Amino acid sequence: MAAKASVLPLEGDLSAALATLRRASAGLSEIVETTSYGTPALKVGKKLIARVKDAETIVLTCPLDEKEMLLEAAPSIYFETDHYKGWPALLVRLGEIAPDELRHRIEQAWLRQASKTLIKTWQEARD
Length: 127
Prior knowledge:
alpha+beta; Aspartate Aminotransferase, domain 1; 4 helices; 7 strands; disordered N terminus
């Protein structure tokens, strides 16, 4: 991870969820570990990618059209509560999502939030 902001001490049950987010975001440039709503979060710059909601759930930024598609296609993985209705954020059950799919979703969120310059540099390094 390129940068690390101070993260509040975690209760043991959130550590595993944060470790899962770290693995899923490995290799993405300028990921910052911070907090959002009192729980661990990943940002690129100041823009949120994902945050831990609880020990079994993360909140992932996601466009509304994609969110609706994922909610219909995989309700055992993706869900929302009333709090998130109408917001570009999706709840993800960590125990249900495959590591490769989580990696893909985190990468897509990163691509939406990162600067064009950062994306270009990251893509060039991959080629």
